[in-house]
Structure formats: C-alpha cells, structure tokens
C-alpha cells in the first residue's frame, strides 16, 4: 500500500460561532478557552469565536453569511463603511488564521457547525486527496459510537472554496445535528466536544510519529440541491418535507419516493433517475437559500498509509 | 351531574405568526386563507397573521415579544413613534379581535404556537372554569392520536393575562412541538392543522345544539420556573439540560434526578422537595427569559355537561 509522509501540524485552530446561532460550537470553544487549551503535544491550539456580533444577537449572521465570505474574490475585496460586517470580519480572520493558500496559514482549521437536520456527525472537507483530513475522519469514525459519523466531500477549487475551514492548509467542518438553532442539547454538544478532542488527539499522535494505516473510506459527494415547491408569485413555500423523508438524511432516495407533503395534503415524489442520498434535509438556514435538501452520491475511496515527515 | 348552558360562539379567530418564527401556525393560517375558510356552520371565522413584520424576517419578534403585550396596562398605554412595534400591533389586534374583556370581543380566539420542547400538543388556557375551552380540550384529546395531548392551565387574572388568546371571550393557545423555530415539519404542521379543524368542528356542533358530556380532566397547573446555571459575571449559561431530562417533558421529576449537565461534564440534580412535571424543557425562546424549564403540578378537575343556550 502507498505510504505518504507529510510535515507536522504545528498550528491548529478550532473555531465556533461562525454561525452565531449554532450553539454547540460556541460552547465548545468557550469551554476550551475556560480550560485554557493552548497546546496539544508540540502543536499550538488557537480558539476563535468567528462571528462575535452574530453570537451576541444569537442569529446566523448580522449582514451576510460569514461562511460564504472566504472565496479569494471576497477576501481580496475593498472593505468600506458600506460593506457587510461579515466581509470585514472574514478578512480579519484571513489575517489571523491564513492568509488562505499561503505558507503562513494555520496547518489545520476545524470549524464547528450545527444543523437542524438529522445528520448525526459529519466531517465536511474540500478535497479527495487531503490525507490529513481523511485520516482525521477515519479516526473520529472509529472512536465515536454515540451517533453515525459520515464524510462529505465538496469538489470545489480552493480559490472558490467559500467556507472558513478553507483558510487552513488543511480544513474540516464538523457538522452535528439535529439541534434547533439557538438551542444547545447535551447530546449534540458532547458529540461535538468528543470530535474536537479526538481530532486534537490525532494531531498529537501524528506529530509524535505514529503511523496511520490506510484503507478504504465511504464518502458522500455533493451532487445537487432540491428546493421546496414555491408559489410562483409570492415565492412562499407550499409544502413541507414529507414525513417519509424528514429525519432520514443519508437514506437512499429512489425515483417515486415521497419528498414533499403540501399544506393541503398532496404528496410530491422524487423524479430523479439516479438513486441518491439526501442530506441537510429541512435545514433551517437553507429556506432562504432555496434548498429543501441536498443530494449526494456514495463512493469508496482509498487513502494511503500516513505518517509525519520530520525533516 | 351539573349542566351548564352558554351563548353560541358566533365569531371565532384563528391567529398564527404571533411569534414570527413559529412556522406551523403561519402556514396553517395561510392555508386557511388560501382555502377561504370564513365560516364554520353559523359562526364566522377570522384568520390573522398576528406579527407580520416578525414573520417577514422569520424572528420571534422585531422589538419586543408581542405575546407579552396583551395586559390591560400595555393595551391602554400611549403609543408613540418610540414605542416598540409590537405594542402598537397589540393595540391594533385588540381593536380587531377585542376589545379585551368587552362584549364586542370575538367569542373564541385560538392562537397557534410551536416550541422546540418535546411537548406534543398542548392546549394552554387561563381559567379553571372556562367550560368552552375545557370542552374543546376534551374533544381534541379524544380525536388526536398521533401525539400526546395535554392541558396546561395558567391561573392569572384576566387584566394581567399577557398573551393574545386573552383578547377573546374564550381563548386557547395551541402549542405543538418539538419543531425548531424557523422550520416547518409536516408531522407538527399536520397535528396543529388537525387541532384547529377539530376546534372548528366542535364550535359547529356546539352552536348546533349538541350536548357535551362532562367528566374528569387531567390538567397541569404552572408552579415555577428553573433557570440554567449561569456565570455570575458574564451571565452566560454554564450547562445544558441533562440528557435524562431533555425531551422528557411531562415526565415526573423527583428530588435527586439529574437536570443539567455542565459543559465540563458535571451533573446538577433537582433539589425540590415536591415531585413536579417539567415542561417547556429547552425551549429556544426562553434562554433570554432565564427559563431552562417550567414546572407543573398535575390535578384532576371535573367539568360539567355543556350545551348552547339559544335564548
């Protein structure tokens, strides 16, 4: 089997409150700050509340979604008094944790998120060949048994990667649900805290020279989105997610399966030819983004054996 | 058994969006408006989106909680440009549906609410002797089998009753959960819609002269509130609802039972001497009101046989 060696991860950042009403990440970061977690083995750990203004008012964002502001275009745009708060904040974070794509960027950025969807614990990452992220996923999946753990890969070039974890040399989002926005549930908090602890344990072991076995991983790759049926004039939704789809994230959706139940009682069926896996089903923040759920294809990938390159 | 006759209910109002992010009520009202539900038997039906500005931005309220604005004091206060939007809106609603406590008020007001708590379907009302409300509860409880149906009674004088249903001669809030705010779930929408339909069916039968048997009812009466453990300086919460209490609304809480799990892992126990029933456990809107959950006592009450008085 292929064997890869990579440089040590000397700087790690853990960020919460990128969406100000996703409470598990806010409280995990605050608890790490209270416990003064600043080192793990030889690596430094930085903890950040990404959008303090949004956390203060317990909303996703104040002017615009911060977690769509980390593209090269927005990070290099001119900020004026008229700019959305989050554009300026994204540029501050890029200075603190990046610059994105540069040698100065943190080695690993973990960004903490919650969803109202029944997704369990998901690791979301941008690359099919970021062996650090994929090995961290493999480790978390092995260690966490309280809920399903899955991997979602987005295939987007780094320059267009819009979310905060793209600032790091390696980046993962840890997405846990279901949890209503503005609420913290102990079960969801505990799963997220354990995922962060396991990530930091992995970093310590990696930097110490442990050899991580390669192998096969099941991954979900993003394919498309489905919007709610909407009124052509008012744009108001006319249906809810069907009870047979609600809470069934990552259960295969076949042609003819019910996907929506209209407010007057009619069922809408899935018409796609290819069976796919729905996720982010009924995520609260996606109503305004015209997304009722996303669809993924399942694949197997093979990752190599990994160890640190101390040279 | 005692027999009571009461005047017909000639004007009914169904209100949603009193809290602008409690979506089932918004969509039930909109669906009734789309279907042009304006009569049920001999009674008129008025449908109202109570807080349209809050619905527009999908928040509980814009300036202040509308559903705390229906006390006599606030309804009679002088409204100026500096007043919170919701105070003026409460006074508009009082003109449209009240005036509260007057002969002109609607006969029955149903106000539709959602909660993030696992409360099933609850009817909330202000009086132990409002036989109309209590018989409507009895009817709904018999008809709806998809989730538990319970009755919560608040013992507050009408002048201090703060919520919108107090504008009607008879008033109930229909509270259904769990549903994240800003989200509509088909199961929760359907239960609320059925509760409204059953209420209107009952009104039609009552006005037509049906005789409703009396009997015993189990009710929950509000006793006290419990707040989260908070940091004495920052006021930030230091614990979440314990997993053994989360989602266990209306399960008896005994001295020594776990109620909170701190973010560093310590359990906090219930210290009350009297076993009581928790409800509104981890309701999202109550973090800012310093309420982690409410506590109720369970009682049995007897309601008389009821029929319309056509004189």
Mean pLDDT of chain A: 97
Counting helices, strands and paired strands, the structural category of chain A is alpha/beta
Write down the oligomeric state.
Answer: homodimer
User: How would the global form of chain A be characterised?
Assistant: globular
CATH superfamily of chain A: Zn peptidases
The largest interface is: A-B, 34 and 33 residues
Largest sheet entry of chain A:
10 strands, mixed
N-to-C order of helices and strands of chain A = EEHEEHHHEEHEEHEEEEEEE
* Euclidean distance between termini CA atoms of chain A: 22 Å
In the CATH hierarchy, the architecture of chain A is 3-Layer(aba) Sandwich
Low-pLDDT segments, ≥5 res of chain A: none
Helix count of chain A, per DSSP? 6
Radius of gyration of chain A, in angstroms, nearest whole number? 20 Å
What is the CATH C level class of chain A, in words?
Answer: Alpha Beta
Strand composition percent of chain A: 25-35%
What fold name goes in the CATH topology slot of chain A?
Aminopeptidase
How many β-strands of chain A, per DSSP? 15
> How many domains, in number, for the residues of chain A?
1
Task: Tell me the strand order in the biggest sheet of chain A.
Answer: 3-4-2-5-8-6-7-9-14-13
Subcellular location (chains A, B): Apical cell membrane; Cytoplasm
Organism (chains A, B): Osmerus mordax
Family (chains A, B): Belongs to the AspA/AstE family. Aspartoacylase subfamily.
Pfam family, one (chains A, B): AstE_AspA_cat
